[in-house]
Design brief:
alpha/beta; TIM Barrel; 8-stranded parallel β-barrel; 4-stranded antiparallel beta sheet; 10 helices; 20% strand; binds flavin mononucleotide
């Protein structure tokens, strides 16, 4: 059996599959379920300063090759979220607090609270494709991003991850700005902006009109982003986007990811997806003579 443990900065993970933000992670009960199903760490739903209801329905569409969502970042707000974090305080599985904000001051306040609540790391969501003020406006501005990351780093002791969008002109430049701000890891990618039109009504189906596309269809985009970023930064990269099987995860490792997050596949394969993917990674590594995840990371560069 191969050793599936992996290290992201100071975070030691028993296997390389984490739960991605936004899927079954808004309350302690569902997060515990994902832990029980084998996720090595949980990234919470993105949490902001104030409670947010999110957009009107429909908010999620199942398309031929993936999901299109415009939830509108519904969340209970950081103060209310303390209750959910408290219920998981004794958990041995790291809980990574995902946060979104419009400026450095808010990011710092949110990260401090997550640290107080016992989060093992924070993930700065600067990449939501459908939340005005809180998403790409921050994540496509390298100078602003560097300021935000370094402000958060000066405030908290826990590792700071930065989650990027593929919908920027130069994702390497943005990743390098996060690294200059002292980020501990890059997470790539968030969903890809998309739209679905109903032919009969001649109208976009999502109430928000546009949304974020996820699932199998975006895997080549995620793999390309990780491949470009990992060769140009000296911090670990966590791959996310379309990972459904062990072989998908292996592809991300070869592109340079040290771990992966799984989102939409929880819907497609059920919560046991973490166990299935780990088993498939193990089988693949055994048959190909790999003993550790780190032996695979970035092998596609040669
Ligand atoms: C319904 C839904 C809600 C999401 N909410 C968030 C969120 O709150 N914060 C975030 O950073 N990403 C969010 N995402 C993006 C995922 O974390 C992930 O980056 C993206 O879906 C690609 O991975 P996947 O193909 O495995 O789903 C959401 C995705 C979906 C499908």
């Amino acid at each position: 059996m191969a050793d599936l443990s992996t290290i992201i900065g100071s975070l030691r993970l028993k296997n390389p599959t984490l739960l991605a933000s936004g899927i079954m992670d808004e309350d302690a009960g569902s997060m515990q379920r994902m832990i029980d199903c084998g996720a090595s760490a949980i990234v919470t739903k993105s949490i902001g300063m104030q409670p947010r209801e999110g957009y009107a329905n429909p908010t999620v569409l199942e398309l031929e090759y993936g999901l299109l969502n415009a939830m509108g970042l519904p969340n209970p707000g950081i103060d209310q979220f303390a209750q959910e974090m408290k219920k998981l305080q004794k958990s041995k599985t790291p809980i990574i607090g995902s946060i979104y904000a419009a400026d450095a001051e808010e990011f710092v306040a949110l990260a401090s609270k997550m640290e107080q609540y016992g989060a093992a790391a924070v993930e700065l969501n600067v990449s939501c494709p459908h939340a005005k003020r809180y998403g790409l406006e921050v994540g496509c501005d390298a100078t602003l991003l560097q300021t935000i990351v370094s402000s958060v780093k000066q405030q908290v002791k826990i590792p700071v991850f930065v989650k990027l969008s593929p919908s920027v002109v130069n994702i390497v430049e943005i990743a390098q700005a996060a690294e200059k701000g002292n980020a501990d890891a890059i997470v790539a990618i968030n969903t890809v902006k998309g739209m679905k039109i109903d032919l009969e009504t001649a109208h976009p189906i999502l109430a928000n009109r546009t949304g974020g596309y996820s699932g199998k269809a975006i895997k080549p985009i995620g793999v390309r982003c990780v491949y470009d970023i990992a060769q140009n930064v000296n911090i670990p990269v966590i791959g996310v986007g379309g990972i459904t099987t062990g072989e998908d995860a292996i592809e991300y490792f070869m592109a340079g990811a040290s771990a992966v997050q799984i989102g939409s596949a929880v819907y497609y394969r059920g919560p046991d997806v973490f166990r299935h993917v780990c088993k498939e990674i193990n089988v693949w590594m055994d048959t190909h003579g790999y003993k550790k995840i780190c032996e695979l990371v970035g092998v596609a560069y040669q």
